[in-house]
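Q: Hi! First time asking for a complex rather than a single chain. Here are the components, and I think there are two in total. Is that enough to go on?
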Amino acid sequence: MKYWAGIDLGGTNIVCGLVDEDLNLLGKLKQPTEAAKGSGFVLERMAAMVKQLLEETGIPLNELQGVGIGCPGFINPEDGVCMFAGNLGWRDLPVAHLLSAKLQVPVFIDNDVRMYVFGEAAAGAARGYKHVLGITLGTGLAAAMVNTRHLYYGGGYMAGELGHIHMEGEHRKCGCGMSGCLETVASATGIVKQVQEVVRTGATSVLQEWLKDEKLDALTSADVSKAYDAGDAVAVQVMQHTGTLLGRGLAYAVTLYSPDALIIGGGAALAGERLFKPMREELKLKVYPGYWERLHIHQGELIDDGGVIGSAAFAKSQVQPI
Amino acid sequence: MKYWAGIDLGGTNIVCGLVDEDLNLLGKLKQPTEAAKGSGFVLERMAAMVKQLLEETGIPLNELQGVGIGCPGFINPEDGVCMFAGNLGWRDLPVAHLLSAKLQVPVFIDNDVRMYVFGEAAAGAARGYKHVLGITLGTGLAAAMVNTRHLYYGGGYMAGELGHIHMEGEHRKCGCGMSGCLETVASATGIVKQVQEVVRTGATSVLQEWLKDEKLDALTSADVSKAYDAGDAVAVQVMQHTGTLLGRGLAYAVTLYSPDALIIGGGAALAGERLFKPMREELKLKVYPGYWERLHIHQGELIDDGGVIGSAAFAKSQVQPI
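A: Yes, that's all I need. Here is the structure of the assembled complex.
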């Protein structure tokens, strides 16, 4: 039998999983990253986790065909190099080569969002679709495009930065150094910031009762969903604006990529219809009907396991191209 | 020796050219399409033109390796089918198969703009770049993306409709049935319409002196360039707005595709710096610096021969993949 390991390498935790040829998840392990101990430590820990998982599932090392790693930051997947990962403090680290030397199997690395979307396309909500646009709504807004099982990279592996498209009329400062980027609105952080701004200018909201002003800093997008359900005008207005702006940005991506399926993942996707209804309305209004008619919109299916399954599926696709 | 034919199939004329392995144009023929005589006539004419060109250049038929056809409309390049071409009155016509039967060589067909951009990437202004975004500014605004010598298609071969991205604040009716599409402004037609609108509302322009009101219908984007050079305020304002809006739309495409080179072709590209200066300024302002720094902007080089060379180059890439 053939097996593949997938590693979701985050700034806080490493999650490692093992899948079979059909991408069924056979086992999973989680350990802290402890990036401060250096890249050598993190690489050793990843190797040890893969070995432990093989042992626990009773799979011999020689049946492991490859390992995929999803990593936040700028990755060169062709060379297997992490060019820059701020959370890990890594720069120009040949991760694939270094881990491959430890495990004696091929190792592949790519950006975590690309791995997630690859997973949804291979074994999740977008299984069966040829052209898949996936986005994750979390701290930021990230996107990736998969065409017939191939990730779209563009020059410098930088394609798909939907979150950093400048939206007319928006002016909030973005972490990237620009202003008015889509993710300053369409993300968990963006939702929270918009509510904080409106409430602090004196608008009446149930959130003022629920959270004293000093606690407003701890507001989450889940709180905003709760307020929305209680009929709170501020929450409704912010969700409406966020969904509309997301739909407008997606119209650009849909027109340029022509996807068959749009997959929405990430924590803030739990806002569900509160966000998706205005998003769909604006998207339908702003794209040529031919695009809208072929588009299937789904929430992500793989949730917590998306990074692990996607990374393993990507490794499999590199060793056994379809 | 190996040779390839490229056919630029328009509603008015058919242009057929022959290239060698290095994509040098060895000869060219032009004949009216006479589409009203039916698809059988047009196919026979294309076959006859290829044979005549071989004869004139003294190349035996068995050294012809393949033929590429660039055709306006909706094309399925995988199946070699023209799904819809309004100018020709064709629907679901298996052009590649039918012409291949006449010439006994492989025939390939694709959309004319994709063929043009493929040509600029293979043998024109974008030679040597891996990721090439090409646009043509003509009656409309069309675009195509080439990644490492492969055209990007998306679902239904519909990707890249930059001209039909809805621009906030724009409201002109578009030929596609929507309103506010980028090509209602950023195209030869768009430039002309904007000037006509402003002049008809009573603004003072040298174009009123140059062209009597009844002739304003015959205005061209070249006239607007001349008025711009004469310091005409209306022409300057329209070029500025058009360039700015084009830059804004390109910012969406650059962020999502991450091209290494942007090639600008089509008749209205002759406006040159009048249009490109505001375009560059807006594009630089609206994309993440990492995209701007890697982007090289060039005017198209192949001009009239782009369709023919591109179609031949595409046929070559299909028979001899690089």
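A: The interface with chain A takes residues 130-131, 147, 152-162, 164-166, 168-169, 176-178, 248, 251-253, 255-260, 286-291, 294 of chain B (CB under 8 Å). Let me know if you'd like any chain examined more closely.
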